[in-house]
């Protein structure tokens, strides 16, 4: 019992953020409360992309958090990213998912798989927020079963020609750079390759915009790829490695959505707390229903527990240790919690919950159990790990 | 299978509503909801069928088919369009049952049963108060999320007075009514906030008559809500079943995944439980028994079932479920909204808890 | 309130069982369970009432009161003693309904209906197999936790053959039977493991007859289980209600705490839903309809309700609930045991999932 | 972003146990598997107190973990205690609660409130396991509402005279030392004082033994106190401080039961996992039902999350920081999880779950939601903290 942090207790586990991360958290919260929260309801009612706020977020460096320092990033890592995303999403999940996709899907992949030339070409635009990134994997016939994709990439000598629409593309109508997964061969897995496609490439078009339950300030669109001819050097990684590249985003993406869900859950918790504090008896003593107080207590406990679960996975990932099942645990539990918390907020706030921020949380929360690997996919990942398949 | 419990008359009502749903409600449900347009065509079509009086005794101008008819009709409407269903349940259930037998309300009853006017009902849970002067009332208070109020020609208001509750008719033009432009559910049912500021009302019942009328309204409200929600739950399950039977993933229909099947089964089980409770509550009420407890239990069961079934149906739809075209997100919003209305589920549980000894 | 649905005959059955429970079952339930003593006095008292034939058609030697009578009786027994209830449900429900109308089983049926012999039923889920030689069968396999088997004079076995399932009668003396000395629940119902090793059996039905008999048995098993569990859930709620009405903490009866009241209300709500599903399943079956889906849903709902209600009743009892004298821990164990028996809840969901299209 | 643990990540949070605690955990697990697990079923069937195993646990120092070093203890602290209790309870909850009560209720109070003479008198017997400790607070009329106790302590000049039975006393029939809370005044709170009573004090008797759903190898008995005359120096702390003394045990006791519940939950999880691993198809591939796999995944995630919640509270307590609501969160969530896990194990194991270790877990688990503050009491504590009452 010799290793101690403070000289008194024989332990190593610590659950405190460093002063630096605590300050970063406060900065993110301040930005979220100042630049996102006041406008989030209007953005969502008008289905308006928060362009200015994203630009301001870029100025604060929030769009470069997963980018290596040598390409203009801050490389703060996964834990910092989780902390940031919880704060942004507590105020505006539409802005939150935009930033999460940009960082954890687009910039991460470019950092991990891009050539030097590709990094030099695209990172300046990405870290400044001049271009936002989008991730084009899903198609009408391939959701959870991503390997069923059919979008074709044809080798035409000096160019690749991509053909076939992509569906459910977050930020699709606002992005400058698309990571596109397309089929270069018949093999279900090894026949998939990844490409960098620019918004202005001829043949790239914005198709149908989804009309959604929530997250309406984050455009989800179809990306039309009609014989899009791109230079050979737009291939990301090697031919046939697309599925591996897609898998490489899983952990980061899941931690991002886990943190988004935590932000939503916390916002719902805070709505309930603030509402219950207004309920006092004739003598000014707290007078909330037990049922509502118990619900609040249960939520408070689970928010803490699942935040720890999320941060643990982030710390493992920051340490380059395997964290697949642990990231799935975080995604699974946080997304369910966000929905439970939002539903509870609507119930407890009553009629004012039907017309105020609670109902927006309920609508926004619902997607967290679906995207970045639906709930049952997370369970599958965890069960495989536990069973040692 | 539940046709076993339906008489010929009730089967006819079911057929009538099904046809009306197919012709009028279904084709417009998505669009009306998305654009928050009032479902006037559906309301008018329902008025034409005469169904607003189905649950009302013949001596009160109705068809005398009891609350069972309300359950049958609401279940069908609940499957298709919560907004239409809620308006129907308020008109044919809550309002008509409140007015039944009130000597001074025959003209109001006629307008309600004929569908000449759309009724908004303000229950005691809104805390509206009245001061009486003979048959005239001065009404004060604010009621939020009153469905139909944005288009109503008549507000029926249960208001508190120093001598207990009364039931009043208030002209909407005497109130400040503001539609909820951004509410969660029932977007096509013109939900609105109603502010009464010394609003002139006409007393339809007071004393024991008012208490009985409000109690009748409450039971009809709960049974109607239960049937609407049960219908919604069945619809969510059926939408999920159809989608997953067709959607192929990992080489086979999604429906073949045990986890998918079990989600739908759980939805179905809860929906069926809710339906049976709603029927039983209606049977007991129609036989003159005290159905308040059963109606409350039916409502709780059904609303939970509807929220759960819609939630799981969204889940088995994957990303599609998050979009409006697949209908389940609408069921989710409407079901959750229904949970909050009429006092909310917590209050229902409080009432049941106080009566536990008589129910167990 | 549910007497509304009971005919005079069914009310009489209810009264009979209630009296028997009061006189014979209740006084011994705790002791029999704690010491794992077989509830022979209760079984014999039930035999004397003739209720083993209540759900059987008159032409088959019964009283012709249908499965509704099984629901009524099982609910009462389930309130008091799961072990007695399970034995009754197996005898009067599962076994008697399986045998009904089988030409070659009249002698067995008589013994079952008269209560001359205690029946253990081994369903297909145990995976027991048979090889036939005319009317003789050689049976192999192991069935675990067969209630009543430790005291049975007859085993009814649904066994698989190359040509589909058969229903056999097997003498327990032809098998190796080992009582479960440490099982979770039904401790007074002589649950036992039965090992069949070339055990000689008599074929009672084969081919389509056997399939129909086994299907009838399955529906009766599920409906009986549903009614037992609903009764148990009502009992747990009532035990909790009484305890918390008397127990003072923080200056007032525990029952006045909202959290306590809501727990009991939730138990009651689920119990009532389960009861209504059980009644409906029985009504449909008695009318000749396909009740398999409803019976399965009733079972799932009721068993969940019983486990939940017992769990919450233990909770509101505090430390008392953890001790045997307050009965709720017994309801908890018996309800959880019932969930596992007859194939288990997961298998029930699988069957429902496969039939979703026909049920929604 | 300067403080780092490993020089690469800008964080402080760490979720790893030190090498020393990891070794301690392995030692506890080894003891539990060797000395407890093989006998636990028999002890529980025979309602037999595991005297020898507790003695062996004492030899390994498990009965002195909360005792200061100067009195022969190891003072390993709360985190170590949580780790130990999870391991012991995974094998035998009856032994686990015996040790938890001894350490976190009896020895802790003696350490915090005892006089020097009292410590010198009793710790040698307690750390060696010669005497086990019992905690006598509950009465027939006072459970969750502890301050309603009526057991009387009368000042009789040179002695205190205690009179009135105590109920639900864990280890009561096996203990050598009883911490007894009794009424020295009328005030609901300030009228309570604490006393040290020995098994051999005249008038101390063992009353009714509870016949329980589970935990049958841990005797729960009534302790009869019939005009028990004890010297004045047996008062623990000061007159009227009894309720404060009782409150002082709350956090430690709750962390103990949270850890017990974690052990039970883990044991149930492991039963399910091992069962599912036996299910393979004709080609030897895993073939467990999705429903069971999903349940396993959900449990695995929650066990990890709620363990982190428990350890966080323990680390706070080791750091002498307030942890009341956080200990309640751990107790609340772990005890519910233990029951959920045990019920799932019985369901998934089917008939073999009805007669094997799963059914014992189900019965043992049920008490964790009741003792050391029932579930609703934990919610009340948490809600008060969140609402700032």
Q: Helices and strands of chain A, in N-to-C order?
A: HHHHHEEEEEEEEEEHHHHHHH
For the biggest sheet of chain A, the summary is:
4 strands, mixed
Beta fraction of chain A: 5-15%
- Overall body shape of chain A: globular
Which term fits the overall shape of chain B? globular
Q: Report the largest inter-chain contact.
A: A-D, 66 and 65 residues
Strand count, sense and barrel status of the largest sheet of chain B are: 7 strands, mixed
Mean pLDDT value of chain A: 94
Radius of gyration of chain B: 20 Å
Uncertain residue ranges of chain A: 1-11
Question: What is the average per-residue confidence, as pLDDT of chain B, rounded to a whole number?
Answer: 96
Q: Which blocks of ≥5 consecutive residues of chain B have pLDDT under 50?
A: none
Amino- and carboxy-terminal Cα gap of chain A? 36 Å
Number of strands of chain B: 9
Q: What proportion of the residues of chain A is helical, as a percent range?
A: 40-55%
* Strands side by side in the biggest sheet of chain A: 1-5-6-10
CA radius of gyration of chain A is 22 Å
Count up the helices of chain B: 11
Describe what this molecule looks like in 3D.
The complex is a heterotetramer, with two copies of chain A (389 residues) and two copies of chain B (360 residues). Chain A is of the alpha+beta class. Chain B has eleven helices and nine strands. At the A-D interface, helix 1, helix 7, helix 8, helix 9 and helix 12 of A face helix 1, helix 7, helix 8, helix 9 and helix 12 of D.
């Amino acid at each position: 019992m010799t290793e101690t942090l403070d000289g008194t207790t024989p332990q190593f586990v610590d659950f405190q953020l460093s002063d630096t991360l605590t300050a970063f958290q406060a900065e993110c919260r301040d930005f979220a409360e100042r630049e996102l929260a006041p406008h989030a309801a209007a953005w969502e009612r008008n289905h308006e992309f928060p362009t200015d706020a994203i630009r301001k977020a870029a100025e604060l460096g929030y769009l470069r958090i997963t980018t290596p320092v040598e390409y203009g990033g801050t490389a703060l890592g996964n834990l910092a990213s989780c902390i940031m995303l919880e704060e942004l999403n507590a105020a505006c999940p539409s802005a939150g998912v935009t930033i999460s996709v940009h960082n954890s899907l687009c910039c991460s992949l470019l950092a991990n798989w891009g050539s030097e030339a590709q990094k030099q070409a695209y990172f300046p635009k990405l870290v400044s927020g001049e271009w936002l990134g989008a991730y084009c994997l899903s198609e009408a016939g391939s959701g959870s079963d991503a390997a069923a994709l059919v979008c074709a990439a044809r080798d035409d000598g000096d160019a690749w020609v991509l053909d076939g629409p992509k569906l459910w593309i977050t930020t699709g109508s606002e992005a400058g750079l698309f990571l596109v997964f397309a089929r270069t061969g018949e093999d279900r897995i090894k026949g998939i390759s990844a490409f960098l496609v620019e918004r202005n490439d001829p043949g790239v078009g914005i198709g149908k915009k989804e009309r959604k339950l929530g997250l309406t300030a984050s455009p989800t669109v179809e990306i039309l790829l009609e014989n899009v001819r791109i230079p050979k050097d737009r291939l990301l990684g090697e031919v046939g490695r697309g599925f591996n590249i897609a898998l490489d985003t899983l952990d980061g993406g899941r931690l991002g959505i886990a943190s988004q869900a935590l932000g939503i859950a916390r916002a719902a918790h805070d709505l309930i707390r603030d509402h219950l504090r207004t309920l006092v008896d004739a003598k000014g003593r707290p007078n909330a229903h037990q049922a509502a107080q118990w619900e609040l207590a249960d939520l408070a406990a689970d928010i803490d527990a699942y935040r720890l679960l999320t941060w643990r996975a982030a710390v493992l990932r920051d340490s380059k240790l395997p964290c697949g099942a642990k990231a799935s645990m975080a995604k699974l539990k946080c997304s369910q919690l966000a929905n439970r918390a939002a539903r509870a907020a609507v119930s407890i706030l009553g009629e004012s919950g039907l017309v105020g921020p609670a109902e927006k949380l309920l609508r926004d929360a619902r997607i967290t159990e679906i995207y970045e690997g639906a709930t049952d996919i997370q369970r599958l990942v965890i069960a495989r790990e536990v069973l040692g398949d | 299978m539940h046709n076993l419990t339906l008489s010929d008359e009730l089967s006819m009502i079911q057929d009538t509503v099904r046809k009306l749903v197919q012709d009028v409600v279904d084709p417009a449900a998505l669009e009306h909801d998305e654009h928050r347009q009032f479902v006037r065509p559906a309301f008018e079509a329902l008025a034409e069928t005469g169904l607003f009086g189905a649950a009302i005794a013949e001596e009160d101008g109705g068809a005398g088919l009891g609350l069972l008819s309300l359950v049958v009709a609401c279940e069908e409407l609940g499957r298709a369009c919560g907004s239409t269903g809620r308006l129907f349940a308020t008109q044919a259930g809550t309002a008509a049952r409140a007015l039944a037998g009130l000597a001074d309300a025959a003209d109001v009853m006629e307008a309600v049963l004929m569908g000449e006017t759309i009724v908004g009902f303000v229950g005691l849970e809104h805390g509206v108060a009245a001061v009486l002067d003979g048959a005239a009332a001065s009404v004060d208070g604010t009621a939020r999320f009153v469905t139909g109020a944005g288009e109503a020609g008549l507000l029926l208001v249960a208001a508190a007075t120093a001598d207990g509750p009364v039931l009043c008719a208030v002209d909407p033009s005497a109130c400040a009514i503001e539609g909820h432009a951004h509410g969660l559910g029932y977007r096509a049912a013109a939900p609105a906030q109603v502010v009464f500021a010394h609003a002139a009302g006409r007393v339809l019942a007071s004393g024991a008559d008012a208490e009985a009328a409000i109690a009748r309204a409450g039971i009809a409200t709960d049974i109607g809500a239960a049937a609407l929600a049960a219908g919604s739950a069945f619809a969510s399950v059926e939408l999920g079943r159809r989608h997953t039977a067709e959607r192929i993933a990992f080489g086979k229909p999604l429906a073949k995944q045990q986890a998918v099947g079990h989600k739908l089964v759980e939805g179905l089980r809860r929906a069926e439980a809710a339906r049976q409770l709603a029927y039983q509550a209606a049977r007991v009420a129609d036989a003159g028994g005290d159905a308040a407890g059963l109606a409350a239990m039916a409502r709780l069961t059904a609303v939970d079932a509807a929220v759960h079934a819609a939630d799981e149906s969204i889940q088995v739809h994957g990303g599609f479920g998050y979009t409006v075209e697949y209908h389940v997100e609408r069921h989710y919003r409407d079901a959750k909204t229904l949970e909050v209305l009429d006092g909310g589920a917590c209050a229902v549980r409080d009432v049941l808890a106080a009566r536990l000894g008589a129910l167990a």
